[in-house]
Design brief:
Rossmann fold; 2 domains; 9 strands
Length: about 290
């Protein structure tokens, strides 16, 4: 397996932490490991700190390290002495003596950065309110598998300008794709690596890839009804898919709410690559672990 650049000992907190060559290396290693699984990390241990619910991220990291020959320890904040006043700094120092890497899901990106600063082992962003880099890597891996490339493609996003969009826009644009995002006012993404429009038809027209995300994310439940009203015109439905390129694929990071952000006929339809995308979380994260853990 060729690894032209070294990421050993590095953190991955944001997509912008990566160069284009480093991102391409992760994607190439992910494709290699998908085709030819190898136990590259015998006796290595991954710590999973998940302060928020998770299905794909948590299970794919746990499964990934096992398939690479290592093991994992699940650490919830209320099970550690953090819940009784031990500092994050002290906890990170101790965990660095036991573990080989940490995958951390917390809403606060500043807290994630504090973990990285205090740890002597690689820290991987398993989602914050700011970014979801692991999802972006799986998305681009899926696009490459289905369409053969990423450079020169048009990616149309419809709906809320979430952290998933920010990470995907940063990665896809780095690799030569165009990202056009249709979001209502007040729901704009943070990334400047995209074209922002208000009309979902404009984002969908001619797109090679159509993407959406849930309308009510973690921590936004109090404003659910208002969000549903504001985002109603931005549902990814069959009419938008008809505007895309004939061979376009549809992506959704999941969990999905069919009938809200995506029509059931699109989620389960012939253009959907959502289930390959979900599987590729495993392969992208295996590549990250194989490249980052010393």
């Amino acid at each position: 397996m060729k690894t032209p650049v070294s990421l050993r000992g590095r953190d991955l907190l944001r997509i912008r932490d990566l160069s284009r060559e480093e991102a391409e290396t992760i994607l190439d290693v992910a494709a290699d490991l998908k085709a030819n699984p190898q136990p590259l990390l015998p006796q290595k241990t991954l710590g999973l700190i998940f302060g928020q619910p998770s299905t794909r991220t948590r299970i794919s990291f746990a499964t990934g390290i096992v398939q690479l020959g290592g093991g994992f320890v699940t650490l919830t904040p209320d099970e550690m002495q953090l819940s009784r006043g031990e500092s994050l700094y002290d906890t990170a120092h101790v965990l660095s003596r036991y573990l080989d890497a940490l995958a951390i899901r917390v809403l606060s990106h500043e807290e994630l950065e504090a973990w990285a600063d205090a740890s002597d082992i690689p820290v991987i962003n398993a989602l914050t309110s700011v970014e979801h880099p692991c999802q972006a890597l799986a998305d681009v891996l899926t696009i490459r598998e289905h369409l053969g490339r990423i450079e020169g493609l048009r990616i149309g996003w419809v709906g809320d300008g979430t952290n998933v969009l920010d990470s995907l826009a940063d990665l896809a644009s780095m690799l030569g794709a165009e990202v056009v995002a249709a979001c209502p006012e007040g729901y704009d993404p943070a990334s400047d690596n995209l074209s922002l429009v208000r009309d979902p038809h404009e984002a969908a027209r001619g797109a090679d890839v159509l993407v959406t995300d849930i309308w009510v994310s973690l921590g936004q439940e109090a404003g659910r009804e208002q969000r549903l009203r504001d985002l109603e015109p931005y549902r990814l439905d069959e009419q938008l898919v008809a505007l895309a390129a004939p061979e376009a694929i549809v992506l959704h990071c999941l969990p999905a709410h069919p009938g809200e952000e995506i029509a059931p006929g699109v989620l389960y339809g012939e253009h959907s690559a959502v289930w390959d995308e979900a599987e590729n979380r495993l392969h992208a994260q295996k590549a990250l672990l194989a490249l980052l853990i010393p």
